[in-house]
Every structure is written in C-alpha cells, then in structure tokens.
C-alpha cells in the first residue's frame, strides 16, 4: 500500500458518481486511494441530472452493466443508510400514441427485459391504476418495478463521505492538469497543487476526460451537451415512481419537492471542437436531430480566442468551458414546468425553486467508455456515460476498480473499449 502524503495505490480523477463509488469500492479492498476534483464533490454532472436509476431503456449491450449497477445501488443504500435518498419503487415510461408503444415493444423483444427485470408493458387501464392523479389519454406504457430514483447530489456526497470514512483522501478545488507516464507506465498526475504519485490512475472526469488523455495520444471522442433540470418547492405527495412522458420526466424526493426536466430536447453549443470527429457523430445527430437544439453563442468565440492566444495547455485547457454553473435554458424548463402542472393537477400551485444547467458527455454511439489502455499500463478510462450515467455509474465504477487492480471484469466490456471508435462504422443502438 502506498500511503505517502502525495501518493496512493490508485488516483481517481473526478468526484462524480463513478469516482466516489470506485473510491468506496477500492478502499473496502484495502487499497489507498486519492480522489481529486477541480470542484466540490458531485459539483457538476452527478448532481445535475434527474436521478433516475434504471435498466429500463438501456441498450442490450448495457444490460449486464445496468443490472450490476442496480444491485450495487441496493448494497450502497443498505451500507450507508440512504433509504430516504435512494428509492427503488419503479420507473414508468408513458406513451400517448401507438408509435412510441411499438418502440417499447421492440425494446422488450430485443432485451427480454420482462424475463430479466420483470419489466412489463402497461395498458391504458394499468396507467390509470398506477398513476390516478395524471391527466391525459395514454396508449400505454412500460414499467420496471425495481428501477427507481435518487436525489443525485445528496446520494453522491453520501457515498463520498462513506469513502472518506474508509480512509480515502479527497482533494477538492485541485485541477489535474496531466497524467504522468514513464516507459509506458503511469506514475501519477500533475495538479495545480503539485504532483501526486500512483501506479494506477482512473480517469472518471466526465466531459473533461478527453482533455486529460489527448496529450498521451488517447482519443476519447465526446461532445458536450448542455441539459437543464429544476426542482420545485415541496408539494403534495403524488407518487414514489420515477415517471417519463414525452414532454417531461420527474421524480418526487423525500422532502416533497419534485426534480424534473424536459424530455423534448437538449442544447448543443457549437465550437471549433465540433469539427473534430464529425463523421463519428453525424449519424447519431441525424437520428436525434429533433431532440438537439444547436446554438452559436459565446462558446464558439471563446474557443477561437483560446486557440489564437495559445491557451490550450496545462490548467488553461481545463479552465476553458469549465462552467462551474452552466447556464440553464429558462424557456425550456418553464415549458417543462407548465407541462408538469398540466400533467399533475395537484402540483398546479407549485413554483420552480431552483433551475440549473449541466454538461453531459456523449459518445458517438451513446455507450460508455470503460477500458484499460493497452500501451499505457495503469491507465483506466471510465467516462462517456452519455446522459444516463447516474444510474449505471456504480457498475462502471466497479469495473474500473477491477481493471485498476488487475482483476478480471465482472461483465463483458468489449462493447465499451475505447478502441471501438477507430475500428469501423459506429453502430446504432436501441436506447429508449
């Protein structure tokens, strides 16, 4: 065990759900761990999502990962006493028309989720029985009774606190500016607080991961999508289910407030980086173009300016687009709030207590990257979770911890290898 002041057996870059859970797991195995983040724990992606914990809607290649994650969520909830934070009472997708319902049926046939997880198709009568408070006419829906939701920021911070109790060193407000490699082996990282030493480094830095690995010749193609979510004031209790309809997704927390967001579209801020690997992203963009709103704004001009001034190295590389508080799309969330109040009449007197933006790292095929790097011993990638990472994060963390300690991964991760982007056309996947 490396227990020196600046050293550890394993360094983890990024204190989101993947980073904190990997640290928690590794510490339980007796490894010394240093967790480093440029901001507070759970400051960005892991606190700014809807908090859905789901297998429902995942691609078939992610099913073992999602199943493992669901079990880990149960274990974590019991281990750290987070029963009020992590709620496994079911997830429902509702469809107002036959077209979406046919997509649900197709996903069920491909994944056999009914046999694996007890997922079931809902009739209009089932929907009315499950959610009597909801207005509207529904053609049917999809439900996985053992999926659920959590208050994402609270849950991530609780896991981090449990990891610290196990001896994990957590450094916040420290930017990792580079990964140290000597003779093909990782030796640590450079940070704004000085070097940190380890023979294993897990990169779980979300949208910023590719900026760390690029100087090593390791390309992780991701695009940064800006999502918006919000929380209401505490309102009357309506359901413990997590619910997704075409216009809004929501779940009610233990204090009665509702976390919600628009299911209709996300924002993409154009930049010079957009041109890189364009061929990889175009197929998925065209498949989902109705759900992505393009913006030409200050981000593009900031990108141009940093290139012209040479601000593309060291800490400057990570300060650009750091966006500790990405702008929320107010119009989008106000529309989602109106949809929410129309859907649930009991909440018509609610108000938006807080809204926020968040940066989401999306890969060309919307599958995560969980991979060792063969030519750099000790470098592990756990990133690119593509807008559904909170729920599958603990499984990603477990596999990353296994790779970092030379153990065989618990599941087949061939579909998540980083080299897939150089091996041929990107495959379309059956996400819902």
Automatic annotation (TrEMBL):
Q: Which GO terms describe its molecular function?
A: D-amino-acid dehydrogenase activity
Q: Which residues cross the membrane?
A: none
Q: Where is the FAD dependent oxidoreductase domain?
A: 9-403
The protein's matches in InterPro entries, at most eight in alphabetical order, are given as: FAD-dep_OxRdtase, FAD/NAD-bd_sf
Q: Which GO terms describe its biological process?
A: D-alanine catabolic process
Which family does the record claim for this protein?
Answer: Belongs to the DadA oxidoreductase family.
This chain belongs to which protein, by name? Answer: FAD-binding oxidoreductase
This chain's source organism reads: Microbacterium esteraromaticum
